[in-house]
Design goal:
single chain; 380 residues; alpha/beta; eight-stranded parallel β-barrel
């Protein structure tokens, strides 16, 4: 535990008494085994613009709100032509203005890319825009390649950012809670909007702030989230082999905190439903080819289903795509429901956050609607 310095962090990152488990735990609706949520990468397909992708994101958030999905998150990525989610706070502000009830959050903000004070200010602003609806999910990966990460961080010492993640987390939490101790260099610095406005003369600002989630695709963040008593989100959609071990590590490491009295873990799940199996396969193949190109150092816009079907895969590329597709729940609505039910049972996840990656926004919207219907989610 020395590398995490858990005993030192425990009192720092969970001291805010205003954040309670009820703001974190979702409610399963319809016949869903656990709460269902949405993770949006704001994907941009060939022949589509970023403006269209962002409009689709709002449509997905509004559909998710109307059909009883619990939350809508966007993920920070950089230098990827097919992903328009480089600025989660901006997207979330836009989405907050066009929704009323659904929780909105980052899945996640890559903390080493940013000064903690900046993130505290951005998410304090979001909390002021949409009180009680904002989640702050944090990751320690760059969300991009090494060269882009160096440009973001203004340094080529990338390991330093990841190694400093627990310290950055403590600093961010202090800014969110406005409780640096006397004598600390930042004791007179305040993240605004934030709790300082409640203590200023005549202040009526709510002291509440967004709950922090830790995100991960390996054991580090699972263990840290457990030590701190924070909710945990695991990236099953691209690290499926590590899901069960990471969730077990999180639960085994968990210490009750002012945030949670028991573990709460969601997993990101790649899932796409269509009217028939063949159409579902056509749609998910576009995302698989896009990922193949990204992993091969050739990132681009998400290809069309026609291009993906006509692509001449080498044996090595075919193996990659087949392995990738194994972890995408796809097919008819009933098949996707069965796959999600099995995944929830197998992992014990408290919540499933569904990401539907395809060339067109129409296919993604249709998929979320089909899944909602398959689980008899109510029209709210």
């Amino acid at each position: 535990m020395d590398e995490i310095r858990g005993d030192e962090i425990q009192g720092e990152a969970t001291r805010d008494g205003e954040v309670q488990g009820d703001e974190i735990r979702g409610t399963a609706r319809g016949t869903a085994p656990v709460p269902l949520s949405v993770l949006d990468l704001v994907t941009v397909g060939q022949g589509r613009t970023a403006s269209q992708a962002l409009r689709t994101g709002v449509e997905i958030a509004r559909l998710a709100e109307r059909r009883g999905f619990h939350r809508y998150w966007v993920a920070e990525h950089h230098s990827m032509p097919g992903v328009a989610s480089s600025s989660p706070a901006v997207i979330l502000a836009h989405t907050a203005a066009r929704t009323e009830r659904i929780r909105l959050g980052s899945g996640g903000v890559m903390l080493p890319n940013h000064a903690p004070l900046v993130i505290a200010e951005q998410f304090g602003t979001l909390e002021a825009m949409a009180p009680g609806r904002v989640d702050l999910g944090l990751g320690r990966a760059p969300g991009t390649d090494g060269a882009t990460a160096a440009a973001l961080r203004r340094t080529d010492r990338l390991n330093e950012g990841a190694d400093d993640f627990p310290q950055q987390l403590m600093e961010l939490t202090r800014f969110l809670d406005d409780d640096f101790p006397d004598g600390h260099p930042y004791a007179r610095i305040h993240a605004v909007p934030g709790p300082v406005q409640a203590t200023a003369e005549g202040g009526v600002q709510s002291p509440a702030r967004p709950p922090i989630w830790l995100l991960g695709s390996s054991g580090f963040s699972a263990r840290l989230a457990g030590v701190l008593g924070l909710p945990f989100a695991f990236a099953h959609h691209f690290s499926a082999q590590n899901t069960v071990p990471a969730l077990e590590l999180y639960r085994d490491s968990f210490k009750p905190s002012t945030v949670l009295d028991a573990p709460y873990a969601l997993i990101g799940v790649a899932a796409l439903a269509a009217d028939d199996e063949r159409e579902a396969r056509r749609q998910v193949l576009t995302g698989a080819l896009s990922m193949l190109r990204l992993r091969s150092g050739r990132p681009g816009l998400v290809p069309t289903p026609e291009e993906a079907e006509a692509y001449a895969f080498s044996p090595m590329e075919r193996e990659f795509v087949d392995n990738w597709l194994v972890n995408i729940v796809h097919g008819t609505a009933d098949e996707v429901r069965s796959g999600l039910d099995d995944l929830a049972k197998r992992t014990g996840a408290d919540e499933l956050m569904i990401t539907a990656n395809a060339h067109s926004g129409e296919a993604r919207l249709h998929s979320y609607g089909l899944i909602a219907d398959a689980y008899s989610l109510p029209e709210l």
